[in-house]
Amino acid sequence: MIKKKLVALAMAAIMTLGLAACGDGDSGAKEEKGTEEAVQQETKKEEASEEQIVISVGYPDNPDTSHDKACTLWKEKLEEMSGGTMTMQLYPSSQLGNTNDIIDQILAGQPIITIADGAFYADRGAKDMGIVFGPYLFDNWEDCWKLVESDWWKEQCSLLADLGLTIVADNWVSGTRHTMTTFPVNKVEDFKNKKIRVPDNTIQTKGFEAVGATATPMALTDVYTALQQGTIDGVENPLHVLYANGFQEVAKYLVLDGHVLNFATWCTSTDWYSTLTDEQKKWLTDSGHEAGLYSQELAADSDEVSLKALKDAGVTVKELTEEEKEAFRNEAISFYEDPDLTKQWSPDLYQTVRKAMGK
Fold it and tell me: Could you say which residues form the signal peptide (predicted)?
């Protein structure tokens, strides 16, 4: 690109010099100098536009897990689409800090992308988005993808962008969230007064309180010891996360309650994102979408493998009947009626979201 423009400018310079030879000498010299400056300016513009953009991607998942593999594909696809002018540096295992730490860096305008969900966005001011992490909101994964394609979701993403966070991918799967405990859970009443570790956000805290548990926010890295010492009685997460952290060694019961279908999004700084060209934005979002489809495949495979591994490790697995799961769902409906939440939400939000999914 640069070479072609330099050649064109050089030809223009030659023609200018030729004309100058027939006229005033000083005028020709000025024309030559002006042409040289134009060449230099054009070169600088081209070099600036083709300078490689490096994006840091931080996430809590360990290397070789589903999200890490999908991020590697995202990096490859972005480099391929951009011709190498955009690339990513991956930072798994919370190397850039926990999710809230990274979001703080993003809001400061850093070229960073991190994985987050409605629960975190609710705590950052997009209150209505928190509902997508509510217990038993979705009946199946198809409901999730219908919601992501809805006008309601697009409106929420626009509001979030105004708050400084732009979502660049929203079709990733973290997995179906289940609960592993140090005590058997056969019915929803078994959660009463039990301490269950949750991520540090209001939505998930309220979600477990709705089924009678004592929600205990805690860093995932502290959970193993807390289970071992009896500080907490259980932990919830997708199966592959539970297994990867070795919780089967200190918690021998698993209830497949499927309380949240955890679709994941990736966000970045609105200010930084606005500095990209339309083409660069498209490369980033298109490659992120492709990687998201891959993450859906990986999550399904990973859950199957992880469940078998947990059983092989001696974990007693409780699969809920439809009737038992309905009892969990009925108990959790109080979440959507919690005045601490509804006073922050738009009127009739639960009904609005269900309608957006075609319910």
Answer: 1-20
- Reported as a single tens digit per residue, the pLDDT across 30-52 is 455 556 665 554 443 344 446 89
Q: b or e along 128-166 (b: 16 or more beta carbons within 10 Å of the residue's beta carbon)? A: bbbbbbbbbbbeeeebbbbbbebebbeebbeebbeebbb
Give the N- to C-terminal CA distance of the chain in Å, as an integer.
Answer: 52
Cα separation of 244 and 190, whole Å? 26
Asked if residues 303 and 240 have their Cβ atoms less than 8 Å apart, the reply is yes
* CB-count burial class (<10 Å; 0-12, 13-18, 19+) for 15: exposed
Domain locations in the chain?
Answer: 52-356
pTM for the full predicted model:
0.79
Cβ–Cβ < 8 Å for 253, 184? yes
Q: What is the CATH number that goes with domain 52-356?
A: 3.40.190.170
User: What is the Cα–Cα distance from 223 to 60, expressed in whole angstroms?
Assistant: 14
Q: Beta partners for 167?
A: 267
**From the DSSP assignment, how many helices (H) and strands (E) are in the chain?**
15, 9
| Listed residue (267, 93, 307, 62) closest to 172, CA to CA | 267
